[in-house]
Amino acid sequence: MKITVLGTGYLGATHAASMAELGYEVLGVDVDPAKVDALSRGELPFHEPGLAELLREHVGSGRLRFTTSYEEAGAFGDVHFVGVGTPQRPGAFAADMRFVDAAVGSIAAAATKDCVIAGKSTVPVGSARRLADIARASARPGVDVQLVWNPEFLREGFAVADTLRPDRMVLGLDGADGARAEAVMRRVYARQLESGVPLIVTDYETAELVKVAANAFLATKISFINALSELTEVVGGDIRTLADAIGLDERIGRKFLNAGVGFGGGCLPKDIRALRARAAELGVEQSVRFLAEVDDVNTRRRGATVQAVTEMLGGSVVGKQVAVLGAAFKPDSDDVRDSPALDIAARLHSIGAEVAVYDPKANANAAKRYPRLDYVDSLEAAVTGAEVVVLLTEWAEFKAMTPAQLEPLVAVPQILDGRNVLDPQQWEAGGFTYRALGRRALP
Ligand code: NAD
């Protein structure tokens, strides 16, 4: 069985290399020639732990290739995975489906043999049925093209492991017509299924909704604890202790209860907005209206962080040296899409602070988005002369730093822990003024 992966970004490149790792011959397809050139040389154009090694190995062996040609892909693949982007539409909340529509239409038209198109991109409910129509209408006479929806749940930073050993797989089928496609997909994922990964086979609509529902739930959990942190800030409580205590309840669970600067990235923010937009189109806007508040709580955390920094600097940031640690939306990633860290850095700069940003992997991407910030190459360079240090992405390097390491370098020993990952007592004992979102300052 030969596999193509359409779109070779975070999802697609990971999926392509992982399919090669499973033993398949794989062809990755992208409309971006620079990306295809880099991948063809075995060079990963972004940071994802473990992926560069997998890419090099399988490009080297010839099992994994890349192209910009849909003609080549149409002749090659028995299964075509679709992993192109579905960003927020400019000026709206809805998902921009142009890339998925184009990819499905192009591959269906180019296919010269019976094949399955497996949609992995995150799409508004109702898309798969529409795309199946596009695929059927575009297919050549005598070529059977079936579409399944197979949403992707990988987490950046753990993308390879999540692809090879997912918690579960979901397959949305076109009713009884999906039997051939289901059999093909069971063969593709045979190794994972044999190792016990649960497979949920359902209809298109449920499969599409599983993905957005999962992301909406995770976003809600983060905003829940962040909303509570607005309360603990006022009454003088400690949000981390509160999260630990409620998290011990198995019905709640501790994961995704980390208060701080909030969520970001290329998925959660745009996915909850797209769900709201789709619900409105379907006339059930009120069903997910709470997601507006989830989004607002999340955005308010960014403002609250800027406010806290301002207070720590005596009421004005103008001309003050601020060390920002982190630009990526999460550690172990260089992804700065809708990153709270970078947004906060940019906001501080826009109101007059002198901002030095250091991220172990995301400086280059951040500089493309906000070229006017000062990007430096090390933690030490960032904190030298700082009047406040602001930890915004919880990289291991930042979690491991100590007051003794920073104290000789900073101008004023004070730190804002935007991710609630440092030990307040350690920093206070080390002579720092420590402040964290949702957590009282020690007396
Ligand atoms: P990305 O922007 O990194 O990659 C998208 C790629 O698609 C780009 O390389 C782009 O050039 C390419 N592309 C656009 N149009 C194309 C076309 N017609 N044919 C071939 N290639 C085309 O995006 P991503 O983060 O990989 O996300 C892709 C999809 O996966 C989105 O729907 C996203 O919501 C979903 N998803 C992402 C993640 C994640 O963690 N990144 C996890 C689960 C699901």
Automatic annotation (TrEMBL):
It catalyses: UDP-alpha-D-glucose + 2 NAD(+) + H2O = UDP-alpha-D-glucuronate + 2 NADH + 3 H(+). GO terms for biological process: polysaccharide biosynthetic process; UDP-glucuronate biosynthetic process. One of its GO terms (molecular function) is UDP-glucose 6-dehydrogenase activity. The active site is at 267 (nucleophile). Its EC number is 1.1.1.22. Substrate binds at residues 153-156, 211, 256-260, 264, 330. Residues 323-424 form the UDP-glucose/GDP-mannose dehydrogenase C-terminal domain. NAD(+) binds at residues 30, 35, 86, 122, 156, 270, 337. Pathway: Nucleotide-sugar biosynthesis; UDP-alpha-D-glucuronate biosynthesis; UDP-alpha-D-glucuronate from UDP-alpha-D-glucose: step 1/1. InterPro entries: 6-PGluconate_DH-like_C_sf, NAD(P)-bd_dom_sf, UDP-Glc/GDP-Man, UDP-Glc/GDP-Man_DH_C, UDP-Glc/GDP-Man_DH_C_sf, UDP-Glc/GDP-Man_DH_dimer, UDP-Glc/GDP-Man_DH_N, UDPglc_DH_bac. The keyword Glycoprotein does not apply. Keywords: NAD, Oxidoreductase. PANTHER family: UDP-GLUCOSE 6-DEHYDROGENASE TUAD (PTHR43750). NCBIfam families: NDP-sugDHase. Belongs to the UDP-glucose/GDP-mannose dehydrogenase family. This is UDP-glucose 6-dehydrogenase. It comes from Kocuria flava.
